[in-house]
Design a protein that fits this description.
single chain, alpha+beta, SH3 type barrels, five-stranded antiparallel sheet, 1 helix, 31% helix
């Protein structure tokens, strides 16, 4: 199973983007996207940005992921 997390493009150089998720930065190829720009949110798979998301959809997804992580952490702390 693969989990796609929206990542924001912070820099573009030679068809490579620096992407950021919650302060963690990585590199991703932009060869599969035609019009990616700094500030866009993208979904990355195997090192390639494969689609763009609008900011509202990206934020909603990130918020849901944060809620899921918090629920798991709360559940785990009750078990200990």
């Amino acid at each position: 199973m693969c989990l796609a997390i929206p990542s924001r493009i912070t820099k573009i150089e030679n068809n490579m983007a620096t992407i950021d998720v919650e302060g963690v930065q990585r590199e991703a190829s932009l060869l599969l996207l035609e019009d990616a720009r700094v500030g866009d949110y993208v979904i990355v798979h195997a090192g390639f940005a494969i689609s763009k998301l609008d900011q509202a959809a990206a934020q909603e997804t990130l918020d849901l992921l944060r809620e899921a992580i918090a629920a798991v952490e709360k559940s785990e702390s009750k078990q200990n």
